[in-house]
């Protein structure tokens, strides 16, 4: 019997005396009991779970109320311990009430069932060779020098993902994998690059590899064609930190998924950090194998919500400072209010305004901004009227249209009214005081408050955000 470090484990009795192996070898009765439990596990957990996780379990020993079973990898041990061990113990106790504990140990070289997460025996490359080989295979994707922690603006909507990213740099594998997901242009790639840069600086001896799932697939297929998958596998399984961006790309690509699954297991098993970015949650990755989905959600899953007005304004201010141009606050505020879906687009619009002013040798004003961004803004100014917005929103939330103007402050009325104010600001060219007037003569600060409130809620509550987005689409569509 060996433990995870490969040493022979010695069992000590209450008096500190080492027990001889015979004392804890399973008796024939125990073997029979385990046989029953083994069959019961299949019924209890279902065929899929049994095959993926429980099939390789093997009876090792039995001593003083402890039943010891083994698995081939640490990864499996951790997963079974946290998900199934309590129920397994119950099954054991139903057979023999003298069993008090279940102990799962790792026995390397233990023959795993073929369906299980088999780790292919691949030699680990020395660091120097690894970097050479990785370069030769053109595996890694380049890192954008602008995507660092310094340039990343933190707000409520991305705080969790940011904190998780920092922990990954500071601690050694705090959770595995780190799974970051969120909509397009919300900063997932930026965060991953930031981790990579920081790691390179703080832990230069570690081999960090960042690549898109697309590249993973491309290089994997290429290696199959060249009949040299060994080098591909070797490199990927020898890195210290593996980051895969846009994992949603592997949906439906079965052999790539399988290869990724093996890479994933091999790395987790060596306690190497894996970081994954996706446009949706692991459970929502249709076309991705159930086992892989469940494994990807095993570490920390951090989502980035839609941005808030504050975050967008913060990013614009930082960007303007980086570009070393002075842009009036009114212009930045205007952009932060109008361009809400995607930060890439937001930055792009600022770049355009700055470039335009530079070429035209003119100052940046609200007027020139509206002119330069005409095409961008038109989609959202498609002659939607405040009346229309009020009517749609009232219908959607099933309240009376008159409640848009009424003084009633009950939540079920006030919230839809705030949503309507928010959409009026977003979708029409009306000023805050004008909007206020349309809502029963309210003050412009009330409108501003409503806009902020709705943005905050959208950042906190994904279903609310989707609700508002649906309304927005139907109005402009
Ligand atoms: P994603 O990978 O989620 O689609 P990116 O990471 O490519 O999005 O981000 C799109 C653009 O927005 C990039 O230029 C990035 O620097 C910028 N960006 C996104 N979030 C932030 C943030 N919180 N602070 C600063 N820039 C950001
Ligand atoms: Mg990205």
Could you characterize the architecture of this molecule?
- With 477 residues, this protein is of the alpha/beta class.
- It has four domains: 11-117, GMP Synthetase, Chain A, domain 3 (2-Layer Sandwich); 159-304, Rossmann fold; 311-381, Helicase, Ruva Protein, domain 3, CATH 1.10.8; 386-476, Chromosomal Replication Initiator Protein Dnaa, Chain: A (Orthogonal Bundle), CATH 1.10.1750.10.
- It is 54% helix and 9% strand.
- α2 crosses α3 and α13 (309-323) runs parallel beside α15 (343-360).
- The protein is globular.
- It starts with 20 loop residues before the first helix and ends with a helix.
- Bound molecules: adenosine-5'-diphosphate (ADP) and magnesium ion.
- Magnesium ion is lined by residues 188-189, 245-246.
């Amino acid at each position: 019997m060996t433990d995870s470090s490969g040493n022979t484990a010695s069992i000590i009795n209450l008096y500190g005396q080492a027990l001889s192996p015979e004392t804890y070898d399973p008796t024939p009765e125990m073997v029979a009991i385990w046989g029953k439990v083994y069959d019961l596990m299949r019924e209890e957990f279902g065929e899929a779970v049994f095959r993926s996780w429980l099939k390789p379990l093997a009876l090792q020993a039995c001593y003083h109320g402890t039943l010891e079973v083994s698995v081939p990898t640490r990864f499996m041990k951790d997963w079974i311990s946290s998900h199934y061990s309590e129920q397994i113990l119950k099954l054991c106790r139903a057979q023999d009430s003298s069993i008090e504990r279940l102990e799962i140990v790792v026995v390397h070289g233990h023959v795993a069932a073929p369906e299980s997460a088999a780790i292919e025996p691949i030699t680990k490359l020395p660091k120097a060779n690894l970097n050479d080989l990785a370069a030769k295979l053109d595996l890694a994707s380049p890192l954008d020098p602008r995507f660092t922690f310094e340039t990343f603006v933190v707000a409520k909507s991305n705080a969790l993902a940011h904190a998780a990213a920092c922990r990954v740099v500071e601690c050694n594998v705090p959770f595995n994998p780190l799974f970051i997901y969120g909509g397009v242009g919300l900063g997932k790639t930026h965060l991953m690059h930031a981790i990579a840069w920081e790691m390179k600086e703080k832990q230069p001896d570690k081999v960090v590899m960042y690549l898109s799932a697309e590249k993973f697939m491309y290089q994997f297929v290429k290696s199959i064609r060249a009949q040299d998958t060994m080098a591909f596998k070797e490199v990927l399984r020898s890195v210290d930190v593996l980051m895969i961006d846009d994992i949603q790309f592997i949906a439906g690509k079965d052999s790539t998924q399988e290869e990724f699954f093996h890479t994933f297991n091999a790395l987790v098993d060596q306690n190497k950090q894996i970081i994954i970015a996706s446009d949706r949650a692991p459970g929502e990755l249709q076309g991705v194998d159930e086992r892989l989905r469940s494994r990807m959600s095993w570490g920390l899953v951090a989502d980035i919500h839609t941005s808030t007005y504050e975050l967008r304004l913060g990013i614009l201010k930082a960007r303007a400072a980086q570009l070393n141009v002075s842009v009036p606050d009114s212009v930045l505020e205007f952009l932060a209010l109008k361009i809400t879906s995607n930060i890439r687009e937001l930055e792009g619009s600022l770049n355009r305004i700055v470039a335009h002013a530079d070429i035209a040798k003119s100052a940046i004003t609200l007027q020139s901004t509206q002119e330069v961004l005409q095409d961008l803004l038109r989609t959202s100014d498609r002659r939607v009227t405040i009346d229309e917005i009020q009517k749609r929103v009232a219908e959607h939330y099933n309240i009376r249209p008159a409640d848009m103007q009424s003084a009633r402050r009950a939540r079920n009325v006030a919230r839809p009214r705030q949503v309507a104010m928010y959409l009026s600001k977003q979708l029409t060219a009306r000023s805050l005081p004008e909007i206020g007037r349309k809502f029963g003569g309210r003050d412009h600060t009330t409108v501003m408050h409503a806009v902020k409130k709705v943005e905050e809620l959208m950042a906190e509550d994904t279903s609310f955000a989707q609700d508002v987005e649906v309304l927005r689409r139907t109005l402009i569509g």
